[in-house]
Write a structure and sequence with these properties.
310 residues, alpha/beta, TIM Barrel, disordered N terminus
Length: 310
């Protein structure tokens, strides 16, 4: 008879399996424009005079960056990135990002538990998250939210909702913004934000909804985060949304190591590539990169209370 895993071990095994699936999907993505194509200049070789960007959503704590984390941050700086906000998605990852924020001057952190890793929160878990927010350069609760793409079990979806509401309450108690993940859970997300989350503030990270949903969120005071998919040929609704969204409600992100923009789709994403997304967004909006970068960096500084040298 197979050994029964305790809840913690089972959650860890499920998390490992989901990560393996995401890694496989990333490696199997077909880029519309091969990286080796002649004429492609990496963002850190394009010059950064007058450019100040913030990668407002990254995950640089994991093994993807173990071998070259310092070089990655150096490339980001040369691309015009003045700050990186890296988020925890488990309690263990949250502990790591707190240490990273204390170790690297351009790095800030958010602590929280991603919906894929939902578990029955206790008062002890609340206290642990709250304690981390007292540390230097911890600026948000996140990445939190709902993800129904990976999770089909209704009981586990209910656990996601319960943990999301609890972390929203914690953020309100601490007077901190939140960074929200929403994948194929738009209806439940909006219901929660209009009820339990009506006094929260923050960002809907990697926005994937419609313009109609975006308008509702904007009315509620939320910011919208845009990532590499904005550069894809099948970007669908995203160009319309970023064109219409108010300038003071837009953030740019990488979600690295995932969601690399073209021409790096299928490769590891990194903070320097936020410049590619910003360039595409500025083009759609008919703005200069410098102006778009200045506005989105101002937005990032205001919502997360960042202190960056520009």
């Amino acid at each position: 008879m197979a050994e029964t895993l305790d809840p913690g071990a089972r959650a860890a095994a499920e998390q490992k399996a989901r990560k393996a699936a995401r890694d496989a999907a990333r490696k199997n993505e077909a880029s519309d424009e091969p990286v080796g194509k002649k004429g492609i200049v990496p963002p850190w070789e394009r010059g950064a005079e007058g450019i100040a960007l913030v990668d407002t959503h990254a995950h640089i704590d994991g093994e993807d960056f173990e071998a070259d984390r310092e070089e990655t941050l150096s490339r980001a700086k040369r691309a015009g990135v003045v700050a990186v906000v890296t988020f925890g998605d488990t309690m263990e990852a949250s502990a790591r990002v707190v240490k990273l924020a204390a170790s690297y001057e351009p790095v800030f952190a958010g602590v929280g538990v991603h919906p894929e890793n939902a578990f029955p929160f206790t008062r002890e878990d609340d206290d642990r998250l709250a304690a981390w927010t007292k540390e230097k350069d911890v600026v948000a609760i996140g990445e939190i939210g709902l993800d129904y793409y990976w999770e089909k079990d209704e009981d586990k979806r209910a656990m996601q909702r319960k943990m999301f509401v609890r972390q929203l309450a914690l953020a309100r108690d601490l007077d901190l913004p939140v960074c929200i993940h929403d994948r194929e859970a738009h209806g439940d997300l909006m219901t929660i934000l209009k009820t339990e989350g009506r006094k929260n503030r923050g960002v809907i990270h990697c926005f994937s909804g419609s313009w109609e949903m975006a308008k509702e969120l904007l009315k509620l005071g939320w910011l919208l985060g845009f990532d590499g998919p904005l550069t894809y040929k099948n970007a669908a609704k995203l160009p319309e949304i970023i064109e219409k969204a108010p300038a003071d409600r837009i953030l740019v992100e990488t979600d690295c190591p995932y969601l690399s923009p073209l021409p790096y789709r299928g490769k590891r994403n990194e903070p320097a590539y936020v410049r590619i997304t910003a360039e595409r967004a500025a083009e759609i909006r008919g703005e200069s990169l410098a102006d778009f970068a200045a506005q989105t960096t101002k937005n990032a500084c205001e919502i997360y209370g960042l202190k960056v040298g520009i």
